[in-house]
Amino acid sequence: MSDRPDYLIPSALAKWPLFAPLAPLLEASGDRLPGLMALNRLVAQCAPCLESASGEPLRFVAPPMAGADYEHAVFDRGQVATRADNWHDYFNALVWASFPRAKAALNARHMQEAALGGATRSRSRGPVRDALTQFDECGLLVLGADIGLLEALAHHDWLAAFWDARARLKASTRFILFGHASYDQMRTPFNGLCAKAIYVAVPEAVLAMPLDRQLAWADAWLAERVGAGEVLSAPRDLSALPLLGIPEVVRENAVRDFYLDTDQFRPLGARTPVAVISSPEAAALAL
């Protein structure tokens, strides 16, 4: 048994709530972060045909090999800059393996927006690229069969959704963490840690899927919507969600008083809540 804390052991993280999408890869990583060669082998076992949106086989490489522009290197050469012994970049690789279509779609949309910016000689990244980056780093897909609860979350009615309707929320909602920076932060969570959520109303059939099929469906849904430009048009499309409020993510949220801390569970105020996206066709799209 290792004398290191669990947050330094990939296989130990596989048992933590919210890490379920990456659990097989975390378990296969063992008790230490893999080097680049081992990481590429690990990802290839899970996603043997992993490639960029341009069709280039994907490889995780040391940053100097990837060139100056991260997104261009991924799209043009299939090279993902990955620092050695770095949790943030390790999780990025695992998310690529777990959500390959969505990650490729995000990269392709970055390239489209960069080309548009070049054509107009814009000096700024623009709201689309800002939204793409925020979701890539901190994204959370919230699938729910109870649209009332999704709307409560979107309105920051934290006590009502997380505590008063706790049993309903657990039965009707799935929180699928996507952002690799959020995975890294969840190793040592802190009050106020938020993800950037997209809320999707789905039929119960989607929630009833085994986890691997549910993740494949989420990957396909994200890829399609990102590619079509139907989501992530600006940062305002994303809703801050306190990750520690999700039932059973931390032991401390097992009591009502936990949700009374308005420094962590902030009201929406004057801001407009994000829209809940209805996806009634979701069951038919199940893979």
What proportion strand? 5-15%
Question: Strand tally, please?
Answer: 7
Helix content: 40-55%
The sequence of SSEs as H and E is: HHHEHHEHHHEHHHEHEHHEEH
Unreliable runs:
none
Radius of gyration (CA) equals: 19 Å
Please work out how many helical segments DSSP would assign: 15
The dominant shape is globular
Please identify the structural class as seen in this structure. alpha/beta
C-alpha termini separation: 39 Å
Mean pLDDT, all residues: 93
Largest sheet: 5 strands, mixed
What does this 3D model show about the protein?
Helix content is 46%, strand content 11%. It has helices at residues 10-13, 23-29, 36-46, 63-66, 70-77, 87-98, 100-119, 126-138, 147-154, 158-164, 166-172, 180-186, 204-207, 211-227, 282-285, and strands at residues 59-61, 79-81, 139-144, 173-177, 194-201, 239-242, 277-278. Strands 3, 4, 5, 6 and 7 form a 5-stranded mixed sheet that branches. Strands 1-2 form a two-stranded parallel ribbon. The protein starts with 9 loop residues before the first helix and ends with a helix.
